[in-house]
Design brief:
467 residues; Aminopeptidase; Alpha-Beta Plaits; 6-stranded mixed sheet; 14 helices; 19 strands; protease; Peptidase_M20_dimer; zinc; Peptidase M20; peptidase activity
C-alpha cells in the first residue's frame, strides 16, 4: 500500500465519525492506528494453503506492540504448518491473579477476486465503509482490540491482573493453533473473544438498537456425502447414476428442517431483542417462539430470516460438491460436503445418524470429516463480566443501549477455552446492519463509525476486568 494511501486512510480515521449515539471522547492516535492496522492486515492474504501469509499479519501486530512498550520477550510468534499464532503478555502487578485473555484470529476465508466488485485483498474505503476480506471477520475487529490495548498502556494504566492478547492462525479451518494457544493459557481467569457478539443497527437510519454478547455457541460439523458407481460410456446410460443419486439425497436434505429448540440464552435473546425488531411480523414471531418453541407459525417466520434461522435449532446445508471425471463418461464418483451448526445438547454422531435417516439411501455413504470441533457447555453469566461489558458498551454507544445475552450460531475459538472450563464471552463492540453482514461472503465490509466507540468500549472493559 502506498504511503499516500495510508495517510489518506489515517486522516479519515481522525475525522469526525457519524456515531448516532452521544459521541464519547476521542482517542486520535488509537483511532488512526485501528484503520492503519486494519487496512494493512486486509492487504495481507492470510488464507490457508499455498502462499499463506498469516505470519506476516502476526509480524505486523508485533511491530505495533513493540512500538507501544512491549518487550521482545513479551511477544511470541510461533509458526505452525503453513500458518502461525501470536501471544503477547502485559504483566500485571499481582502475579497471583489469573490472566485476562483477549482472543482473536488473523486468518480469513478464501475470496476469489473475479467474484468481487472490488479486489478482496485491496482495502477500499468508500462513504465511511471499509471493504475487503476480513473487514468483518475479523481484521478490523483485531485491529480495534489491539489498538485499544495499546492506547490503554500508553495512557499510563498499570493492570493488577496480567492481560494477554492472542491471535490464532487457522480459526477459519482446522483450529490447530487455537488448541495450542488455549493449552498455553489454560490458567486464564476469563476470555474476551473479539470475534463474536456485537451490535445491531437500524436498517433505515443506522441507529444503534441493541448489543449482544455470546455465552455459548453451536457445534461445528462437516459431513461428506459420497456415491460411487462402476461408471462406463455415456452412450450407454445405466439406471444407477452417481450424480443423480447424490442429487436426490441433497434435495431431501434441502427440504428437511431439524426440530426447533430453545435454551436459556436463546430464549433471552428472542425476548429481549424483539422490541427492537423493525419488522412487526418478525418481532411477533420472536415473542411467540420465546413463549412457545413449538409454535409452528413463529418457527416458519424465523427460519425464513437468515439472521434468525441459526438461533432456532440445528442447521445443515450443502457447501461444496464434486462429481464425474469426463464429459463423455458416466460418473464413477459424486461427493458433496454438508456443513452443520449443531444446537448445544446434540453430538455430531447423533446428527450424522439423523442425516442418514433423512436421506434414506444406502448407496450414499456419510462420513464425519470434521476437524477441530467439539461440544462445549455454555459459559456462566458472571456478574463481573456482565457488569463491566454493560458499562463499557453504554459508555461507548449511549446509556440507553439494551444489552442482550445470546448464543452464537457460528463456531469460534471460545470452544477451546470452554472445553478447559474457562469462561469465554463473545463481546465485540462492532455494530452492523443485518443487510451489511457479509462475513465469508462477497464484498465484506464494516462501518468506520465503529472505531471511536470501539476504542472507548475496550479501554473501559479491559480496565474494569484487570484492575
Amino acid at each position: 500500500m502506498s504511503p499516500f494511501r495510508i495517510a489518506a486512510l489515517s486522516a479519515l480515521a481522525l475525522a469526525p465519525l457519524p456515531v448516532l449515539a452521544a459521541a464519547p471522547a476521542g482517542y486520535p492516535a488509537a483511532e488512526a492506528q485501528v484503520l492503519d492496522l486494519a487496512t494493512k492486515s486486509i492487504a495481507i492474504r492470510s488464507v490457508r494453503g499455498e502462499n499463506n501469509r498469516t505470519i506476516d499479519v502476526a509480524k505486523l501486530y508485533k511491530q505495533a506492540l513493540l512500538a507501544a512498550g512491549w518487550a521482545e520477550g513479551d511477544i511470541e510468534i510461533t509458526p505452525v504448518d503453513d500458518t502461525a499464532y501470536i501471544i503477547a503478555t502485559w504483566a500485571g502487578s499481582d502475579p497471583k491473579l489469573k490472566p485476562l485473555v483477549i482472543s482473536g484470529h488473523m486468518d480469513v476465508v478464501e475470496a476469489k477476486p473475479s467474484d468481487w466488485k472490488r479486489d478482496p485483498f485491496t482495502p477500499v474505503v468508500e462513504d465511511g465503509i471499509l471493504y475487503g476480506r476480513g473487514a468483518t471477520d475479523m481484521k478490523f475487529g483485531g485491529a480495534l482490540a489491539l489498538s485499544s490495548l495499546i492506547e490503554l498502556r500508553k495512557s499510563g494504566y498499570k493492570p493488577r491482573r496480567t492481560i494477554v492478547i492472542e491471535f490464532s492462525g487457522d480459526e477459519e479451518t482446522v483450529m490447530k493453533t487455537t488448541g495450542l494457544i488455549a493449552d498455553k493459557l489454560k490458567n486464564a481467569e476469563l476470555v474476551i473473544n473479539a470475534d463474536a457478539g456485537g451490535g445491531k443497527l437500524d436498517e433505515e437510519a443506522g441507529k444503534p438498537l441493541y448489543w449482544v454478547w455470546d455465552g455459548a455457541e453451536k457445534t461445528y460439523g462437516d459431513f461428506k456425502f459420497e456415491v460411487t458407481n462402476p461408471g462406463g460410456h455415456s452412450s450407454a446410460p445405466r439406471p444407477e447414476n452417481a450424480i443423480v443419486q447424490l442429487s436426490s439425497a441433497l434435495v431431501k436434505l434441502g427440504a428437511y428442517y431439524f426440530p426447533a429448540e430453545q435454551n436459556a440464552l436463546t430464549k433471552a435473546y428472542f425476548t429481549q431483542a424483539a422490541p427492537f425488531e423493525a419488522n412487526p411480523k418478525t418481532a411477533a414471531a420472536m415473542r411467540a417462539f420465546a413463549a412457545n418453541p413449538a409454535d409452528a407459525d413463529a418457527i416458519a417466520v424465523l427460519r425464513a430470516n437468515p439472521a434468525m434461522v441459526g438461533k432456532v435449532g440445528t442447521t445443515c446445508v450443502p457447501t461444496m460438491s464434486d462429481a464425474g471425471h469426463a464429459l463423455n463418461a458416466l460418473p464413477q464418483r459424486a461427493t458433496a460436503y454438508i456443513n452443520c451448526r449443531i444446537f448445544p445438547g446434540h453430538s455430531r454422531a447423533e446428527i450424522m445418524d439423523q442425516l442418514a435417516k433423512v436421506v434414506g439411501q444406502p448407496e450414499v455413504k456419510i462420513t464425519d470429516v470434521t476437524e477441530g470441533s467439539f461440544e462445549t457447555d455454555a459459559s456462566p453469566m458472571r456478574p463481573d463480566f456482565v457488569a463491566a461489558s454493560t458499562k463499557a458498551i453504554r459508555k461507548a454507544w449511549g446509556k440507553d443501549i439494551a444489552v442482550v445475552p445470546s448464543q452464537s450460531s457460528g463456531a469460534s475459538d471460545s470452544m477451546y477455552y470452554r472445553r478447559l472450563g474457562i469462561p469465554a464471552y463473545g463481546a465485540s463492540p462492532v455494530f452492523t446492519k443485518d443487510s451489511e453482514e457479509f462475513s465469508h461472503g462477497l464484498n465484506e465490509r464494516v462501518r468506520l463509525e465503529n472505531i471511536r466507540p470501539g476504542v472507548t468500549y475496550y479501554v473501559s472493559l479491559l480496565t474494569d476486568l484487570s484492575k
